């Protein structure tokens, strides 16, 4: 069967794009996803995040040895499930600063992507349960809630104020600076993934088809125009055709991989793997960057965190509380508190972000506490300067890509990261939070000098799950896509996900990825209307 649009990748952006395009009943839309449907019950419980950072709902990726991180191969979580990151992430709802998007427009030639120009798409997407006005939406597909934080999270926010940060009730408001409780992508105490918010309501439409468990082998290109995709389904190769456009939404790792497998990328590298060159696009797979998170873990002097619910009787109580009242520990996303602040007070906007987790050992690579009562503080450099790459291991779609974020590959990133650890410790030393603390568990008080902190960052830092930039958007001929998200040199092909970000935003990346899809939908619909008008004019002539 032919479709008007084939969307390759059912993550956050793909789900949003499929829902928006299928609003037009005359348009036939096909959404393809390699992973399974979002049927795992842990997906839908806010607290289920702690089960999601590894296992069968991910691709099981690791980086190549990181030269500046003691040659470690670092686990690199990327979702393999319908909804993508929105089905497994910590549900933090942040957008970044307006200045991030102004830089896209002014420094990278991304006309139409300034802060003021993208704001309406954030607002259109949003269904906020407590905030409104020009910066927030009500009634959109994406549920956004203000949960009730645990008492120790409130103590964290007070401790941040004690070190000089202002209280900030809205990180997506006029100013990002300060500390507060994160708003979350939840609705009525359940995760509101892009599947729940966008896709599931749209799946009632007869013009939208969703297929999961489908591996896309390559994009089909004829006479420099994308005309469909070749997939592997139930062990068989099948060709699917698109009369309108192929829309790539496989994320910052998956999208460049599929481009390269389809012969669009650095020509010499493609030839070396025996892949016929369709378009010589040297920057496909380049410009990879990500937030490099560093954790500190503290043991508490009593059962003040969610760790106590690992015991059976507390677990049963939490389940009952959630079942009856839709509140309590199960309704917590664990990553409850946050802050945006400065390593460099001369910076125009915050250069550090903090996540306060009401538990220890929640994520892979972060140690648990034997006493069963701890909390974690994660910090990262918001605008890293190091750049890495995504390249092919082979010409086979079944082989994982070579992922090299080049963590700490720039001295600025290391210096800012160390300041994040120091500030984390300063927050824990304040009376508001310190009264709950027994001792620093990880890295421990013995690690104190600059050289020791540098070694700690290199040895234990990890991804914060925010890769971007590998199919860079720009106004220059070297960019992979233009500001309309069209792949240069190939008609009928757009990339509409986090891979097009020319620079990482100063926040988590789920909401910005959905914004990109919202804006892409308008561009695609406008192009279709324009093509239809042109056809009618020609026919009339």
Features of this protein?
alpha/beta, 7-stranded mixed beta sheet, 541 residues, 7-stranded antiparallel beta sheet, 14 helices
Account of the protein in words:
This protein is α/β, with parallel strands linked by helices. It is built from 14 helices and 25 strands. Strands 1, 2, 10, 11, 12, 13 and 25 form a 7-stranded mixed β-sheet that branches. Strands 7, 17, 18, 19, 20, 23 and 24 form a 7-stranded antiparallel β-sheet that branches. A 3-stranded antiparallel β-sheet has the order 16-21-22. Strand 14 (264-265), helix 9 (267-272) and strand 15 (279-280) form a beta-alpha-beta unit. Helix 1 (12-21) packs parallel to helix 7 (194-202) and helix 5 (115-125) crosses helix 14. The longest helix is centred in the last third of the chain and has 31 residues, at 510-540. The protein is globular and about 70 Å long. The two termini are 33 Å apart. The model has no long low-confidence stretch (mean pLDDT 95).
**How many alpha or pi helices?**
14
Radius of gyration: 23 Å
Coarse shape: globular
Task: Give the number of DSSP strands.
Answer: 25
Helix percentage range? 25-40%
Topology:
Elements: E1 2-8, H1 12-21, E2 29-33, H2 41-44, E3 61-62, E4 75-76, H3 85-88, H4 98-107, H5 115-125, E5 126-128, E6 142-144, H6 151-162, E7 178-181, E8 186-187, E9 190-191, H7 194-202, E10 208-212, E11 215-222, E12 225-233, E13 236-248, H8 251-261, E14 264-265, H9 267-272, E15 279-280, E16 286-288, E17 292-300, H10 312-325, E18 335-341, E19 352-357, E20 374-381, E21 388-391, E22 402-404, H11 411-428, H12 431-434, E23 437-442, H13 450-460, E24 462-463, E25 493-495, H14 510-540
Parallel strand pairs: 1-2, 1-13, 2-10, 5-6, 13-25, 14-15
Antiparallel strand pairs: 3-4, 7-18, 8-9, 11-12, 12-13, 16-21, 17-20, 17-23, 17-24, 18-19, 19-20, 21-22
Helix pairs in contact: 1-7, 1-14, 4-5, 5-14, 11-13
């Amino acid at each position: 069967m032919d479709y008007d649009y084939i969307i390759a990748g059912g993550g956050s952006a793909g789900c949003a794009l499929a829902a928006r395009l299928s609003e037009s009943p005359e348009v036939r839309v096909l959404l393809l996803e390699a992973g399974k449907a979002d049927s795992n019950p842990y997906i839908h419980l806010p607290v289920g995040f702690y089960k999601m950072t590894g296992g069968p709902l991910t691709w099981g990726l690791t980086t190549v040895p990181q030269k500046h991180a003691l040659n470690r191969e670092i686990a690199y979580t990327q979702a393999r499930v319908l909804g993508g990151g929105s089905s497994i992430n910590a549900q933090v709802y942040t957008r970044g600063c307006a200045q991030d998007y102004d830089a896209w427009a002014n420094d990278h030639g991304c006309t139409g992507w300034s802060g003021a120009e993208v704001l309406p798409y954030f607002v259109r997407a949003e269904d906020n349960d407590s905030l409104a006005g020009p910066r927030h939406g009500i009634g959109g597909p994406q549920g956004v809630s203000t949960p009730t934080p645990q008492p120790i999270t409130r103590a964290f926010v007070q401790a941040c104020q004690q070190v000089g940060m202002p209280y900030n009730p809205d990180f997506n408001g006029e100013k990002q600076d300060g500390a507060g409780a994160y708003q979350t992508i939840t609705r009525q105490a359940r995760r509101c993934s892009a599947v729940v918010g966008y896709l599931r309501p749209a799946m009632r439409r007869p013009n939208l088809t969703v297929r999961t468990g489908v591996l896309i082998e390559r994009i089909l290109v004829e006479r420099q125009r994308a005309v469909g995709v070749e997939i592997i389904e139930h062990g068989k190769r099948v060709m699917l055709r698109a009369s309108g456009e192929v829309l790539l939404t496989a994320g910052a790792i998956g999208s460049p991989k599929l481009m390269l497998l389809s012969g669009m990328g650095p020509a010499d590298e493609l030839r070396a793997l025996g892949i016929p060159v369709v378009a010589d696009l040297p920057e496909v797979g380049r410009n990879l960057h990500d937030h490099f998170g560093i954790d500190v873990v503290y043991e508490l002097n009593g059962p003040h965190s969610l760790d106590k619910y690992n015991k059976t009787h507390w677990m049963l109580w939490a389940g009952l509380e959630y079942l009856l009242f839709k509140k309590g520990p199960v309704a917590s996303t664990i990553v409850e508190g946050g802050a945006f602040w400065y390593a460099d007070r001369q910076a125009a906007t915050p250069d550090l972000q903090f996540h306060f987790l009401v538990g220890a050992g929640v994520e892979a690579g972060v140690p648990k506490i034997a006493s069963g009562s701890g909390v974690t503080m994660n910090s990262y450099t918001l605008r890293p300067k190091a750049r890495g790459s995504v390249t092919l291991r082979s010409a086979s779609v079944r082989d994982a890509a070579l992922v090299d974020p080049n963590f700490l590959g720039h001295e600025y990133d290391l210096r800012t990261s160390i300041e994040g650890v120091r500030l984390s410790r300063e927050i824990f030393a304040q009376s508001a939070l310190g009264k709950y603390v027994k001792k620093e568990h990880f890295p421990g008080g013995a690690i104190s000098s600059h050289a020791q902190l540098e070694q700690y960052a290199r040895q234990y830092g990890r991804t914060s799950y925010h890769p971007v930039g590998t199919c860079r958007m720009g106004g220059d001929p070297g960019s992979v896509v233009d500001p309309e998200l069209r792949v240069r040199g190939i008609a009928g092909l757009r990339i509409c996900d986090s891979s097009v970000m020319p620079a990482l935003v100063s926040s988590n990346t789920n909401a910005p990825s959905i914004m990109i899809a919202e804006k892409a939908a308008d561009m695609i619909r406008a192009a279709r209307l324009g093509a239809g008008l042109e056809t009618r004019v020609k026919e009339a002539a």
